[in-house]
Write a structure and sequence with these properties.
The chain is α/β, with parallel strands linked by helices. It has a single domain, classed as Alkaline Phosphatase, subunit A (3-Layer(aba) Sandwich), CATH 3.40.720. About 30% of the residues lie in helices and about 15% in strands. It has 13 helices and 17 strands. Strands 4, 8, 11, 12 and 15 form a 5-stranded mixed β-sheet that branches. It has a two-stranded parallel sheet with strand order 1-7. Strand 13 and strand 14 form a beta hairpin. Helix 7 packs antiparallel against helix 8. It is globular. The model has no long low-confidence stretch (mean pLDDT about 90).
């Protein structure tokens, strides 16, 4: 779960009630189910079930880039750029775990905003065959783009998202015939193509046929098939609060339900985003609008997975690309802060009820147990049964690349 824009420590899981008002802000801390651990009053549901989560208050090593790539891969966007860059974890899982006969793609990217426009879930040196399946969710969840990013999105073209509907004039029989014809025509081209694009087209064609003809995956994207009591579990309480032009609508909490439905349909990795934590101005009112979406959606997802017996098999993490400055600025907001940021993790066999790391009295620097992004990914891969420091995948030149070049499973979580 990418908290698009970068969430503040102080308004989430690391309030500092004894700091000066220009640091602590307007929100009070509240007690949680974990003795001695407090969160912001903006997260009452999380506080009530804190013993089901673990909290990282000392995430460090952000490269400071306004997208979700480091939260998708653990790496800087510059790493191995000469080879196409590092792949997102979902793309790695697609490479290692997918099959053309699957009725759902291994990696589904539901991210919007900066994360989508800047192609955070990209396959990098793996090549386009292992890119994400990216359904267009803009009709379900509005996310107005900043003016600068509208141009960036236009450059991606009309195929950055994947249609999930079958042409009504194209029967299953004709679809199969066309697929066989494509295989024959492309055979010669594949022999001379070294970019990976032909393999990608073949892979996408095979998978698209399975997805479109089964209908299971497309149905998973229709959360209205859920009974009313499940929809109500994810609903944000009614209330009027100030939102920025790029903020999520209250129904953004249903993205978490969508993620659960996709996992049930066979997807291995789902990425989504909640916008817009880029709170340079009017931070208090904007957090009043954003926090309930995460508070409701995240706690409902964990409860839902637990009720269905899925929680031990699904790891959930919520974090952003960096944190926010300790000091409130002249516009009543907080600016970008690379030194430390928060993360929340649950499920997948992780031990709940852990509070990892500590910051100084201003929540500006990690002073105990700093956790790197790659440590988190070592843990996520471990939960999938993969030793990331000793597992390789081949780049487009056929050379083996380790999934991670550093990082350790976070002690205390497993």
């Amino acid at each position: 779960m990418h908290l698009d824009g970068g969430p503040s420590q102080l308004e989430t899981i690391d309030p500092k009630p004894h700091a000066p008002v220009e640091i602590r802000g307007e929100f009070l801390p509240i007690e949680t189910r974990l003795p001695g651990f407090q969160v912001s009053e903006l997260f009452p549901r999380l506080a009530a079930v804190a013993d089901q989560f673990s909290f990282i208050r000392s995430l460090v090593g952000s490269v400071g880039r306004h997208d979700a790539f480091q939260c998708q891969s653990g790496f800087s966007h510059k790493d191995l750029s000469s080879l196409g860059g590092r792949p997102a974890m979902g793309c790695v899982i697609s490479k290692l775990k997918t099959s053309p006969t699957d009725h759902a793609p291994a990696f589904v990217d539901l991210m919007q905003g900066r994360a989508l426009v800047r192609n955070s879930g990209r396959p990098g040196f793996l090549g386009p065959a292992w890119g994400p399946f990216r359904p267009d969710v803009s009709r379900l969840f509005a996310r107005k783009l900043e003016e600068k990013m509208e141009g960036e999105l236009a450059q991606l073209g009309s195929h950055h998202a994947t249609s999930l509907t079958l042409n009504p004039n194209l029967s299953i029989g004709r679809l199969q015939s066309r697929r066989e014809l494509l295989v024959g025509l492309d055979r010669v081209k594949r022999q001379v193509d070294s970019s990976g694009m032909m393999d990608a087209m073949d892979g996408f064609t095979q998978q698209a046929v399975g997805i479109l003809t089964s209908g299971r995956f497309a149905a998973a994207l229709d959360y209205n098939q859920e009974p009313p009591h499940v929809l109500a579990r994810y609903a944000v309480p009614a209330g009027t609060v100030q939102a920025s032009a790029t903020s999520e609508e209250p129904k953004g909490s249903l993205k978490f339900l969508l993620a659960r439905r996709l996992i049930e349909a066979g997807v291995r990795v789902v990425s989504l985003s909640i916008s817009d934590f880029d709170t340079h101005r009017n931070g208090g009112p904007r957090m009043k609008q954003l926090a309930p979406i995460v508070d409701c959606g995240l706690t409902a997802l964990i409860a839902d997975l637990d009720d269905r017996g899925m929680l031990d098999d699904v790891t959930v993490i919520a974090w952003g690309e960096f944190g926010r400055s300790p000091r409130i600025n002249k516009d009543a907001g907080r600016d970008h802060w690379r030194r430390v940021s928060p993360a929340i993790i649950a499920g997948g066999g992780c031990r709940p009820g852990q509070v990892i790391g500590k910051t100084d009295r201003l929540a500006g620097t990690a002073v105990e147990r700093p956790v790197q992004f790659k440590d988190v990914f070592a843990t996520l891969y471990h939960n999938l049964g993969i030793d990331a420091l000793n597992t390789t995948v081949a780049d487009l030149r056929g050379r083996p690349q380790y999934l991670l070049d550093a990082g350790n499973v976070i002690s205390g979580l497993l």
